[in-house]
Design a protein that fits this description.
By secondary structure, the protein is α/β, with parallel strands linked by helices. The chain has helices at residues 26-39, 55-68, 89-92, 114-135, 161-175, 207-226, 255-266, 285-298, 304-307, 313-320, 350-353, 376-380, 392-407, 411-415, 439-444, and strands at residues 5-11, 47-52, 77-81, 139-143, 154-156, 187-191, 193-195, 229-230, 249-251, 279-281, 365-367, 386-389, 419-421, 424-427, 432-435. The protein has a seven-stranded mixed sheet, with helices on both faces. It is elongated.
């Protein structure tokens, strides 16, 4: 039985070739999927790829392919389509696979500009071409972003904003042991939410920021409401809700924007004093890099290894070399204010005359997402506690299995175990959290990066 042919239509990568980019790029997913298809018996000549800069060009590429191959009954074929949607600048830093919104402009909208009209035309052209694929007996798998008005044979949700925010928040919960934290000695956490445009006027492009906050707040909100977590900048409180995302949103078009933002949030007028902070949800590695630069400039010292004393750089390097596993120890509580004999915290004004305790400028747990090669040394030395990425190899393997099953008309066996969303079988793998302890197994062993890439 023939495996048929597969044609992949993806956007061009958002980034140029550089170390300072997320590992999750379309070019790398195409390569991994091609390899996975070949492993499942597809011939190299039966796999074609098309990368286009925007939806208009992509829709024409799909239309041409359908006309030249599908409508001529040219064998079993599956089209794998990742819509080439417009992406906000701040969203690009999460990587290429994040779910976006693709919608037609509202009919009769006088504000519709030429770009909107072009997107509407391209969307209509894409839907018409893909419907012809299915009418001719072909198959369509859609990646990342759903196409309104079209029902594919399968949808692959590689990652979305809520997942990204939720994963980082959960990592903080685990690392800072928030379930054991008391109101008397709360943890101090800041959420850094990059966005484009004016926060007071949410646009479609800002949905990603809103949803990323929703994911983080779905985890951290409980701790804020119970009083065991507070915001050093006071931008969030026990009364905050998921709708208050704009309170922590800021424009992050360059690193200096991030540095200025973290400095403003942690600023104190007392000379030589520091605003204590235990954790920073940076949302992506671009922001994490700016947070690290800002904390360093302000004089915060130490690393995540200080918060977890059993981990040292030697432990990490040994783990990467395969010599030992990294053991995690209990997170020590920060130093509390001295107490009187009655057990109450002193308030005799002595704090104003004394040098602030060393722990007040202790380095916090910094999270991120994207697994930038340029940030990996920060993971190793503990300046950034964790990063994350979509399971590129796992998704590639799953996509290849779906294509093979569809072309062999054995889709029931391949898709029955998927979740069904809006009537469409949907594959969604969990994101991968990367920290110093699992760097080798999550990034190096699977071939995502090399020791040299990580400057090791």
């Amino acid at each position: 039985m023939t495996n048929g042919q597969v044609a992949m239509f993806v956007p061009t990568d958002s980034f140029t070739i550089s170390q300072n980019v997320p590992l999750n790029t379309w070019n790398r997913l195409v390569g991994a999927t091609s390899d996975a298809l070949i492993e499942r018996g597809f011939d190299d000549d039966d796999i074609t790829t098309h990368a286009d800069a925007d939806l208009d060009k992509q829709s024409r590429s799909i239309e041409t392919y359908v006309r030249e191959h599908i409508e001529h009954g040219d064998g079993e074929r599956t089209l794998v389509v990742a819509p080439a949607v417009r992406t906000a600048e701040s969203t690009k830093y999460y990587g290429d696979y994040a779910t976006q919104m693709l919608e037609s402009s509202k009919d009769g909208d006088d504000a519709k500009d030429e770009k909107d009209a072009k997107v509407d035309e391209a969307l209509a052209r894409t839907v018409a071409a893909l419907n012809r694929v299915k009418a001719a007996g072909g198959h369509v798998v859609v990646l990342s972003t759903r196409i309104p008005g079209f029902t594919p044979d399968a949808f692959v949700s590689i990652c979305d904003a809520e997942q990204i925010g939720r994963m980082q928040a959960q990592q903080l919960v685990n690392k800072l042991e928030l379930d054991k934290t008391s109101r008397d000695n709360p943890k101090r956490i800041e959420i850094m939410l990059p966005f484009d445009g004016e926060a007071s006027h949410p646009s479609d492009e800002q949905r990603f920021a809103r949803d990323a906050f929703k994911g983080a707040w779905s985890v951290l909100g409980t701790y804020f409401r119970s009083g065991v977590v507070v915001s050093p900048s006071l931008r969030l409180s026990a009364a905050s809700t998921e709708d208050d995302w704009h309170d922590v949103a800021f424009q992050a078009r360059k690193t200096d924007d991030v540095v200025a933002e973290i400095k403003a949030r942690l600023h104190t007028n007392a000379k030589g004093a520091f605003t204590p902070i235990d954790g920073v949800v940076s949302m992506n590695d671009f922001v994490a890099d700016g947070v690290i630069k800002g904390l360093t400039a302000m004089g915060y010292v130490g690393t995540a290894a200080d918060i977890n004393p059993s981990i040292t750089i030697g432990d990490v390097l040994g783990n990467i070399a395969g010599r030992r596993d990294v053991q995690r120890g209990k997170v020590p509580e920060p130093t509390q204010a001295p107490k009187s004999s009655a057990g109450e915290a002193k308030d005799d004004g002595s704090a104003d005359r004394e040098t602030p305790p060393v722990t007040s400028n202790r380095w916090p747990i910094v999270t991120g997402y994207g697994s930038y090669v340029s940030n990996i040394p920060n993971i190793v030395d503990g300046k950034q506690w964790m990063t994350g990425l979509a399971d590129r190899n796992g998704n590639a393997s799953g996509i290849a299995a779906i294509c093979r099953a569809l072309n062999r008309n054995d889709d029931k066996a391949a898709l029955d175990h998927f979740n069904t969303v809006d009537g469409v079988p949907t594959m969604g793998l969990p994101l991968i959290a990367v920290s110093a302890g699992n760097l080798k197994t999550t990034l190096i062993d699977p071939g995502y990066i090399s020791l040299a890439d990580a400057d090791l």
